[in-house]
Each structure stands twice: as structure tokens, then as C-alpha cells.
Protein 1
Amino acid sequence: MEEDTDSRKQARLAILELANMISVPMSLNAAVRLNVADAIWEGGSNAPLTAAQILARVIPTGGGDAENLQRVLRMLASYGVFEEHIGGGERKYSLTDVGKTLVTDEQGLSYGSYVLQHHQDALMRAWPLVHEAVVDPSKEPFERANGEGAYDYYLKKPEMNELMLKAMSGVSVPFMKALLGGYHGFQNVEKLVDVGGSGGDCLRMILQKYPNIKQGLNFDLPEVVAKAPQIPGVTHVGGDMFKYIPQADAIFMKWVLTTWTDEECKHIMSNCYKALPAGGKLIACEPVLPEDSDDSHRTRALLEGDIFVMTIYRAKGKHRTEEQFKQLAVSAGFNLFKAFHVDHFYAVLEFQK
Ligand SMILES: C[S@@+](CC[C@H](N)C(=O)[O-])C[C@H]1O[C@@H](n2cnc3c(N)ncnc32)[C@H](O)[C@@H]1O
């Protein structure tokens, strides 16, 4: 093969970029662990700072290596997390819109917890075993690495359970703001159950906007709801959605079906069907895969999340297309279907009994 053509040179570059790509998430994790985003943001100033100035904020007692921090910041700047300002012989860094998603808000939330959640030791142990999901999907890479499934594992480790709750809230609260601005399907609901509702943030936000909902049930595993905060109008209910789902006029479910196999999804959706009256709605918010495999941020975020599900949760759990969700709902008995695209990652899928 000719190795001096431009296309071969580009190809060698591209494969080196892919082979070194682990530096990207691990450096992002480092930046979150060091709390760099809050240090730069400082109440909204977002003034460009040198690595030494950032270091002085993240380690106020002194010490640390500014050059190594700069190496991390520089690389992440090339992925759009920080903006690099070069002048006067110095490199300075401020936050881009992407970097701002890592700033802790007044509720103590950000996307930082989601980054940390993904890089805990137990999850990291599963990643070298992705090929095992191809060879034998009967056992998840996470289970091969850790001896039990992810949810069971988290529940025995209070610190993982708490980080999971915080990560879910950090991702869900901004999405829910977008959903409540663009979707109006809660108008005639009086009793709503959120299945797999985690700490209850989604339900809290829905109830704040829709006072017509007199009763909100946040349904999740007993160990999860035991850690959930008290929320006015919300009753936390511990249980197993594979056994029973509390009755309500409508069921909300966000980011739940994705982690289960087709058979398990049918089972969950059939239990939803049983819990609803005639005309009742299942409102599912899930990542929805496009048909194309292009290199857009949207397609990549969804395809990468698909491999995450395969590796950590269920080897045959998956991100699905709209059509695949529709077929699952029909097999569980639902007949009417509408999709609302209120976000680039999640879609709202409405199924009626
Ligand atoms: C990816 S999280 C989504 C949480 C929340 N809906 C959100 O979007 O922020 C999936 C949720 O399903 C819950 N879950 C897992 N197995 C369950 C079961 N058998 N019954 C009820 N909830 C379950 C988990 O505890 C977790 O809170």
C-alpha cells in the first residue's frame, strides 16, 4: 500500500485519534473531579484564567502542577469544553456553553455528576469487556466484571446510589424545563405516576406547572425512594415495575425502557397498560435513535449511549428508533401513538390505551 498519499496520511491520523480517545473522557472526568468549571465560573464572571490561576482556586492550600492542568485544559478546549485565549505569551481558559453544563447551579446540580457516575471504578472495570457482549450477550460486561448487575450493585453501595440520584437529577432537570415548554400532554391528568422516577425531580417539576394534577406518585425501587427528598404533593412508592405499577390516569416514564431488553420492555409496558384506565396515556421520554449513522453530535451521543447501555446495564438493552418503540407499545396493547421532539437527545413518546 502507498503510504505517502494524503488519504493514507489522513487515515493514520484518524486511527491514532481514535486509539488515543480515552484521554478525552478521562480528562473530562479529571476536570470535574477538580471542579474546574466552578472555579472558572465564579458566580458568573467566566473571566479567562491561566492554568495557574485556576489551580490556585481548585487547590487553595497551594501545590499542584499548573503545567499538567494546562495540558488537560488545552486538550479539552479542542473538544469545545473550554475556550482557549492566547495572548501575551499566556494561555487562558474560559467556559464554552458545553463547559457551562458542568457549573453547579443553586440546587447543587450540574452535568458533572453524570460524568463522575460514568467513570466510577465498577463501571470502568466493565469497559475492556465490550467484546464479550458480542461473543455472549447472556451476561453484561458489567456483571462479568463485578459479579452482579448494575442496579443491584449500586443499591448495595450507598455512595453509588447517591451519585446516581444526583446524576439523574443533573441531567433531567434541564431536559424537563425543555419538555414543559414544548409538550402539553399533562393538561387533563389528575393522578400521575412516574415509573423509575429516581429522586422525584421530574414529578416535582410537572406538578409545579400543572396544579390540575392532585396526586403524584414517584415509583422506584425501595432503596432508591428511601433516599429521595420530601416533595410537596409527591408520594414516594417503593416497588418493582416488573411486578406491579400503581394505578393512575397517566404514567410518566423517563429514561427507563432504554436499559431493558425488548421482552422486558414489553413486560413493563404491559404493566403500564394494566395500570391505566381506557383512554389513559403512557408518556415515555427516551433517547430515540436516528436511522442514519452520521457524525453529528446528536447521532454520536445516541450511538455512544447505546454502547454504554449494552456494556453497563443490559447487553440487549438498547437505544431504539421511534418505529421500534411503536412496535413494542403495540405489542403491549397500546394503540394511539404520537412523538414530540422537544429535545435533541430525548423524544416524548405518547401511547394511548
Ligand atoms: C436511568 S434511571 C432514570 C431516572 C429518572 N426517570 C430520570 O430520568 O432522571 C432509571 C431508573 O429506573 C429505576 N429502576 C430500575 N429497576 C426498577 C424496577 N424494577 N422497578 C422500578 N424502578 C426501577 C432505577 O432505580 C432508576 O432510578
Note: Residues 112-120+165-352 form a domain with the Rossmann fold fold (CATH 3.40.50.150).
Protein 2
Amino acid sequence: MDNALLKKAVFSVNDLPVLPAIYEKIARMTQNPSTTAKDLARVIADDIALTTKLLKLVNSPFYAFPRSISTIPQAIVIIGYSALRNLVLTKSAFDLFPKFYGAENFKYVSFWKHSVGCGVGAKIIAKHCEYHEIEEMFVSGLLHDVGKVVQEQFLRGKFSEAISFACKSNITILEAENDVMGFCHTDTGNLVAEKWNLPPVIVEPITYHHKPRHTDKHRLQVSMVHLANVLSHALQLGSSGQKVLTGIDRFAWEMLGLSLGCIEEIMKKMLNEFDDAVNFIMS
Ligand SMILES: [Fe+2]
Ligand SMILES: [Fe+2]
């Protein structure tokens, strides 16, 4: 279904959720070379929850910094502007959506755990591939199925029908969504990601994580999120509502060039890091 038609069919009455202004502000400021850490700190300091998350992150084993960091400018200097932007996006997007109550057959807690699992996987795979924007990969993984949340919020009846149909027929949610609604969560995810003005490097994994070969530009990043999604399912880290397991796409596999030994190592690390990441994101 083309985008204009989808928008008209689905969202003519209801409006899509918008990201809080702080994300746009930080995104704009971090692209401007004359912005200083102090300028950014002033904006962050107005948001107590964000300040707490940022300090928690820089003091976590993830950065393994030798001494404790207690001020926001210090924290920003340590993690860098790009990581800060992605942290603000992680928090802003996560805060927008429900955590508990959804359709009878869609459990938000399990869904977010699956998403965190995918974020953790994408970050670990990025390290293995020597791709340095690891926070960008984490947020891409975390948001890869955001279309499902939007559907659950705006089209609960039809989406719930698609989940039941997928379970009954032993097919993927994506196939069931296409059968029941004529479009799927990657179409819806693309709409919301575009509306939020997210950079293409995050929009494309949301749009193509089930068909990496159709990606326009960011094939490596899409392939990493694709693999992280498959592994998050295989390790049963939460659940996105789907019962059937899907394999690794050949295009993504060739793109990443990882060995089977690497995959085993990545899965072990995912299991080790999963609980901490769930605590960090969901608390
Ligand atoms: Fe998906
Ligand atoms: Fe998924």
C-alpha cells in the first residue's frame, strides 16, 4: 500500500503521537558545531527524569569510567553528542507509549522486553562489526517494531485480529497484518518515524527489518537490526506477539559477514546484558 493511501485509510481521524519538543531541540543543537556541552546541559537540566537517566548511563558498566560522574556537562563530554541525541530519543519515544495495558493478546511488558532485547542485540552486533554508533543501533533496535505499538493504540481491533490470525495459522504477524489490514507494522512504523523526522539511518531499520534487501542506503544498519530481531526471538527475550520463528535473511547474513561462532558469542552477550538493559530502560 502506498504511503498516502495508508495515511488516509488509517490516520485520517486520529493523529499520530508526536515526540516531545526536547528531542527536536537536542537534535537541532547537536547538529550545530557551535553548540557547547554547557548549552546542552542547560536544556537537559530542565528535565529531571532525563538528567537522572543520563547520569545513570554514564556511571553504568557500559562506559566503565574509572570515577563517578556527577555533572551533566561532564556526562555529555563523555558520551558525546550523537549518543546524547540517541539517549534523548530513546527516552522520549519510550515515554510516549503505554507499558502495561493493551489488547487481550498483546502484552506490552513482553513487547518492550523483545524490543530491548533487539536493541541490546543491535548494539552488540555493531561492536562485532566495528560500527561505532552503538547508541544509534540500540535505539534503532528498541524502536524497530514501533509500528505495532501505533497499531495497538490506533487500530486495536484489527491489530488484535491479526495477532490471533497469526497464532491460529502459524504465520508471522507481518503476514497476518497484510492479510487482515492490507499493510503491516513496518509501513506504520515508517509513517511514524518520518513524522518524527528521525534520521534515515534509524527510519530504514524500522521500515526494512523484515526485508533488508529492499533497503535504500543503510544496508549494514538494517541488517544488524534484522539479525538482532531474529536473535531476540530465538532467545525468547520477551515477545512481540509472534509465535513462529523466522530465519536469518541471506542478504543480511552476507552483508554482515559474521561466522556462526560470532553469532554464538553475540547470543551469550545478549543474555548477559539483557536484564541490566531492561532495568535501565523500563525503570
Ligand atoms: Fe517487526
Ligand atoms: Fe521484532
Note: The pocket of fe (ii) ion (ligand 2) is lined by residues 114, 118, 144-145, 229, 240 (CB under 6 Å).
